[in-house]
C-alpha cells in the first residue's frame, strides 16, 4: 500500500511588500509650449509641516553714506520680515545688516529673498522697491559692470549711454522689461519678474560690450508687437529683428609721412655715388686749385646777381600804377539824326505867322 498524502494546512496570505509600497508615478517630462505662462503655486503658512532644524543667516555690509537712510527705514524692514518670522538686525558700528531664520519661520526660501532685499538696500535701492523681492513672482539681479572694460573713460561713456539723455533710455528699458532699474557706481540693480530680469541683463551686457541699447530696445518693441499678432505668433522672428553690425575702426594715430612700399626686386639697389664720382662726371676732379677757386667765385657772383635782380623787381613793384577797372556800362550814342528839310519848313511857317500879325494901334 502506498503512502497516504497528508493535507497541508492552507495559510491565508496578507498584503505583500510590493503591495505595501505605493506605486511611483513618473513625472511629466513632455515639452511645455510656453513655460512663462505657467503659474507658480502659492506657498502658504501651514504647507511646511515640520519646523526648520538649523538656523540660517546672511550678513551684508553697507557703505557709510547709507547709514542714515537705513536707520530711518529699518523699522519698516523689520515689519515686512516679521510676517515671515525672519529676524533682522542692523549693526551701525560694524556697518552690516543681518537676517536669520527662527523656529517659527514657515517658508524655507524666504531667507534667500530677505538676503536679496538687504543686498538691494546696500546698493542704494529705496525700501519701496526692495521690499517687492519678497513676492513669489519677483526677484532681484545685481549686475557688475566695471569688469567689461579697463579704460575708465570708456566705462563712463558706456554707462552714460545706458542711462541716456535725461534718463530716457533707462525709462524705456523699465517700461519694456517691467523692472525697476538703478544704475549706481559700478553696478546695475534690477527688481522685477524673472523674464524681465533676463532681458535686462542681456541689454546691460551688450551695452558694456559697446552695442548701443537702442538695438535691444527696438528688438523688444518688435517682439511685443509680433506676440500680439495671431498669424506671426508662432513663426520665426529673426527676419523682423534688427541686426547689429560691428564697425571695428582703428583709431591708432597714423604717421604723417607714410612710406610707400616699392615693388619687390631680387636685385639689390644701386650703390649711391660718392663725391669723387660726382666730381669725375662733371670734370671738376681734374681742375687746378686756382680753377676750382675761380669756379666757386663765379657761382657766388651769379647767385648774388640773381638775388639783386629779384630785390630790384620787388622794389619797383611799389611804383607800378594799378590797372584801372574797365567800366562794363555801355556808352550811349549822343549823335542825333537831324532832318534839315523839316527844320526849314518850320522856320518858314514861323516867318509867315510873324508877317501876318497886324501892328497894334
TrEMBL record:
Recorded GO MF terms: RNA binding
Protein name: KRR1 small subunit processome component
Record note on quaternary structure: Component of the ribosomal small subunit (SSU) processome.
InterPro entries registered for this protein in UniProt: KH_dom_type_1_sf, KRR1-like_KH1, KRR1-like_KH1_euk, KRR1-like_KH2, KRR1-like_KH2_euk, rRNA_assembly_KRR1
Xref: Gene3D superfamilies: K Homology domain, type 1 (3.30.1370.10)
Family as reported in the entry's similarity comment: Belongs to the KRR1 family.
Native source species: Trichogramma kaykai
Function text: Required for 40S ribosome biogenesis. Involved in nucleolar processing of pre-18S ribosomal RNA and ribosome assembly.
Keyword Nucleus carried by entry: yes
Source species taxonomy: Eukaryota, Metazoa, Ecdysozoa, Arthropoda, Hexapoda
Nucleus as UniProt keyword: yes
